[in-house]
Amino acid sequence: MSSSKSPRSELGEFLKARRAELGPHQVGLPDTGAVRRVPGLRREEVAQLAAISTDYYTRLEQGRIAASASVLGALARVLHLDDDQRDYLSELAGKEAVRPRRRTRQTVRVPLQRLLDDLRFTPAFVLGRRMDVLAWNPLAAALVTDFGQIPARNRNYVRLLFTDPAMRRLYADWETVAHTCVALLRREAARCPDDPQLAELVGELSVRDADFRQWWAAHHVANQRIGTKTLHHPVVGDLTLDWDTLTSATDPDQQLITWSAEPGTPAHDRLRILASWAAEQGQPDTADEPRS
User: Fold this and answer.
1) Residue 125, phi then psi, degrees to nearest 5
2) Residue 156 per-residue DSSP state
3) Residue 150's domain spans which residues?
4) Which string of b and e fits 155-190 if b means at least 16 CB within 10 Å?
5) The domain spanning residue 55 has which CATH number?
6) Burial of 289 (0-12, 13-18, 19+ CB in 10 A)
7) Does the pLDDT at position 95 exceed 90?
8) What's the pTM?
């Protein structure tokens, strides 16, 4: 460290140098191909990925303020710092070394998988931490989307809502559904504030979608477990379905979501038609591979 510079100034220069080394594609951002005035990521992109304000990050990079341990952890993740770089960042900030917490790998619980296998006429899927989709049955794939065609690391329900145009068209009231999911995710963030995958998801969606960014900043929370939704399905038309949640007693981080319709209603009949269509397509019962 130069004797003429304060630790805050050194920290700011270190952050600036690291963001200059990264391109948008390396952090999951769309690369428009436009010429950038400076190399690497922009300040606002780093700030949004770290779920902090651009003004806060700018002052931090200029050496005008100190950073909290949680902000340092978020920046270390966004900038893809290795362990030595994380330690150096912490030393400059006068903090304990910031290392990401490791969480046990999550797989669908066997009893929940059995339920999925037995639900032929009921769309169902299992959500894990961060609303990751861990498993689903053929009718859920036919009703919502073919989860098996989505890379496991991107198989997150909130992410799909905001990034998949087909999901936006599926929900008759997409805005209400998406807003509620953001509020559910905000509640989980309060429960697991040090989850690096959750921070990465929030940062990515904050950059990619203005609605997500606005709703996340509003700090609304929810704990909705039942409801009714109307879907515009491309194969069988409109369906108004009730959804419910079953939480695993042995792993509260796993929830079975089911969709159903009252017998005798058009939606009930259309689910039967969709089940036959899904069987003809040969969609397999699927569980996600383990992920952290």
Assistant:
1) -150, 160
2) B
3) 110-287
4) bbbbbbbbbeeebeebbeebeebbbbbbbbbbebbe
5) 1.10.260.40
6) exposed
7) no
8) 0.72
Measured between its terminal Cα atoms, the distance across the chain in Å is 37
- CATH code (residue 137): 3.30.450.180
Instruction: Report H helices in 231-289.
Output: 266-281
How far is Cα 170 from Cα 40, in angstroms, rounded to an integer?
36
Give backbone dihedrals phi and psi of 206, rounded to 5 degrees, phi first.
Answer: -65, -35
Cβ neighbourhood burial of 76 (10 Å; 0-12, 13-18, 19+) = buried
Any idea which residue has 């194969």 for tokens? Answer: 235
**Gap between the Cα atoms of 66 and 6, Å rounded:** 12
User: What is the tens place of the pLDDT at every residue in 152-168?
Assistant: 989 999 999 999 999 99
Q: How far apart are CA 62 and CA 106, in angstroms?
A: 40
